[in-house]
Fold:
Amino acid sequence: MSDLQDEELQGVTRIFVNLGAESEQAKVMAAQLLKRAGQIAEERKISKVEAAETLLKQVIQARNGEESV
Structure:
């Protein structure tokens, strides 16, 4: 894994930990989210950052019991 990928994983892992996930589970969820963000970025021809941001917003909305639009 490159340094950038490690930094991305650590950053998203911290978000999940801050949302209440256990450390190991947060790391798994972060890896899955980043993988899906890469897939979405390719499908929609957008940046991986934009795709990850969208997915994270959906996670936060779901955690807060909000409906996603």
